[in-house]
Amino acid sequence: MDGPFSLVRDCLRAEKPVALVTVVELVPHEGSEDVLPRLGAKLVVRPDAEPMGSMGEANLDRVVIRDARGALDAGQSVARHYGPHGEARREDITAFIEVFAAPRRMLIFGAVDFTAALVRIAKVLGYHVTVCDARPAFATAVRFPEADEVVVDWPHRFLAKVADRLGPLDAICVLTHDHKFDVPALLAALDTKVGYLGAMGSRSTHEGRIRRLRAEGVEPERIQQIMSPIGIDIGARTPEETAVSICAEIISQRAGVMAPSLRDGSGPIHQRESS
Amino acid sequence: MRDVLDDIEQWQSAGHRVALARVVAVIGSGPREPGAAMAVNDDGEVAGSVSGGCVEGAVVAEALEVLACGEPRLCTFGYSDDEAFSVGLTCGGTIRIFVEPLD
What we know:
The complex is a heterodimer.
Chain A: H1 3-13, E1 18-26, E2 42-45, E3 52-53, H2 58-74, E4 78-82, E5 93-100, E6 105-109, H3 113-124, E7 128-133, E8 149-152, H4 155-162, E9 171-174, H5 179-190, E10 196-199, H6 203-215, H7 220-223, H8 239-255
Parallel strand pairs in A: 6-7, 6-9, 7-8, 9-10
Antiparallel strand pairs in A: 1-2, 1-5, 2-3, 4-5
Chain B: H1 5-13, E1 18-27, E2 37-41, E3 46-48, H2 56-69, E4 73-77, E5 94-101
Antiparallel strand pairs in B: 1-2, 1-5, 2-3, 4-5
């Protein structure tokens, strides 16, 4: 691979955000003698480093780099049009700004059977997955070989270290369903900017949790941000099916599409077998 | 592009030339988002995809031509009445794919 591509590859391998700008179309203005970049010309833009490459014109480079940084911030690839010197409202040059964001993160608190299944499904969806549990016998890399990271710590203490790196595309799933662990974990998780926060447990488990969170002074509307019982209502029974139901809820919430979340239903979350 | 990096490296270290095709625009309904990538080597081997399987065959042909002439190109695949028998997307959308040699 040549220069720009190998830099992009290195960033992707290191899971660092990067934008690759490529000139994909040239429509020279009639009668213009302006020099346009060549088709395929490239710039590589990273958040905290000097850009690599050039479109061959200083003003055009400046505008394109600015737009690439904006696309990196937004986490969204975009095609943009420019004049020969970076003018807006001209369409001589079309540049595709391809954004490779750092992978979304999923933090799973509680090293249980459901955790192993959720790690697998989350990896299929491209998440960087961390499993965290305070019990060293359970939180082991051997039990969760697909996890990117297995941490032995109390979830709220671990969150204090990573909270400022979490954003709206990230998710926290609390699978401990033990008040001793999940109340402090949820208190800490509610203070992060994650786009999804779910907590496992039956409706009565969650009612107990709500009482404890209220006793800690958490407002009801903030408690309502917790998706619990966790997942959408697809009749999931096994750990694997439950993992699909949780990930489906994360996708639907991010997409702003209404899906039948268990949180918004009533009655037992597992239908009794009819005899 | 993440999903085709390993194949590209393997092919290149085996002495193959490689073209990269990337979706750069989707107009209307399309199966893959901009950035979906497919790599093609000079033997016509393929990694990744740029649609739901609708235009991959045509993109391989474009990629082999790009490797032969050395110049990148922008290809548009759509579906309209007057080109009902040409390559298009059954979902009715139009995608633009930039194909370039990786050397």
